[in-house]
Design goal:
62% helix; globular; 0% strand; 152 residues; mainly alpha; 10 helices; 2 domains
Length: 152
């Protein structure tokens, strides 16, 4: 029996509630795109270094939804060290991934990411332009990381 192929959505849900990191890591290797996406989503509920490493490891998944959900999960966990990795996906072919990257960078980076996302006001895809506009509005009210740490 090939465990990678036999994982179901119910299994993913049980792994999430059981905090079964080993099982979710196995699910990330599934041949089923949807199983990988759901495993990436479930990992956000088990914050920690191992989850972050697993999510970073699947950012280059061939399925756009897995990339987008992995980025969203990294933002949900709040791992600021993932900012450079997420930045790479601002130029992804999928507009959904670009939107996820913009939103994640705003959540994780604060005003320091303004210069990174500003060019996406002119993206060819309307969804990306709208996400960028909303994200810039959020940044108006957000304090700078530097100010929050008392460095300014």
């Amino acid at each position: 029996m090939n465990k990678k192929k036999d994982i179901s959505l119910i299994d993913i849900e049980n792994m999430k509630w059981d905090r079964d990191l080993k099982g979710l890591k196995l699910a990330l290797q599934s041949n089923n795109d949807y199983i990988r996406k759901e495993a990436a989503e479930a990992l956000r509920y088990i914050p920690g270094k191992s989850s972050v490493e697993s999510l970073l490891g699947i950012l280059n998944d061939p399925f756009w939804a897995v990339r987008a959900v992995s980025i969203q999960s990294l933002a949900y966990i709040g791992d600021k060290d993932s900012i450079p990795h997420i930045t790479d996906y601002l130029k992804d072919d999928s507009w959904v991934v670009r939107c996820s990257a913009i939103e994640a960078l705003v959540k994780l980076g604060g005003k320091e990411v303004t210069d990174l996302i500003l060019p996406f006001l002119f993206d060819k895809e309307a969804h990306v332009r709208n996400t960028t506009e909303r994200s810039l509005e959020k940044l108006k009210d957000k304090k700078s990381i530097i100010q929050e740490d008392g460095i300014s």
